[in-house]
Design a protein that fits this description.
The chain is mostly helical. 52% of the residues lie in helices and 0% in strands. It is built from two helices and no strands. The longest helix is centred in the middle third of the chain and has 20 residues, at 24-43. The two termini are 27 Å apart.
Length: 64
């Protein structure tokens, strides 16, 4: 997907009260992976995802 179509799809999901194709959980997983890659590169060692796990309470957020 091109960035503009991702944004358009996200806006449509909000307007129609539906789950977007790319969720907040997906975004967090990507950020954790990128954080681990950056830390691994800077420290020249293997980095487990648990070391960069982002603390969230997304599981407690209820759907309407």
């Amino acid at each position: 997907m091109e960035p503009t179509s991702i944004v358009g799809e996200f806006i449509e999901a909000i307007e129609n009260d539906k789950e977007p194709i790319i969720t907040g959980k997906d975004g967090i997983a990507v950020m954790e992976t990128l954080d681990a890659i950056n830390l691994s590169n800077s420290e020249e060692r293997w980095v487990d995802l648990d070391e960069v796990r982002i603390e969230t309470n997304l599981n407690s957020i209820g759907r309407r």
